[in-house]
Amino acid sequence: MDISLNFLQPGQIVSLEHGDRNLYAEVIQFVVSRQLCWVRPLLMVSFIQESLLVTDLRDSSDLLWPANLFRPALDTEVISLLSQVLAKEPKSEPDSAAKQQLNQFIHQLWQAYQDSAEGYPGGTGVQT
Hints:
Elements: E1 13-18, E2 21-31, E3 36-48, E4 51-56, E5 63-66, E6 71-72, H1 75-86, H2 96-115
Antiparallel strand pairs: 1-2, 1-6, 2-3, 3-4, 3-5
């Protein structure tokens, strides 16, 4: 995926996809020198037997992730999902099940990224 600098702007909603799950996050900053994107997770959508399970991730930790793995989230896919999450008050205590889901998703995505010879399509691996 070819990421242009115009795409990764603060406030932009982006998606990371892996298997039957999509993580939607808000771009905080694009780190040009390292081609990394600092994002704040908003929600995760799991596709389970032709239905959607939406998990609120607003109280989870920010991520610093390779920019080439993100795609822009389309307004039509995000608006109804965000309205479901934003209509609820954030929980007063962190949701450990939601954080565990996020951690599992990130671990699986990272493993797939590392197992791929060139990284994900369009990627050349992570530069450190």
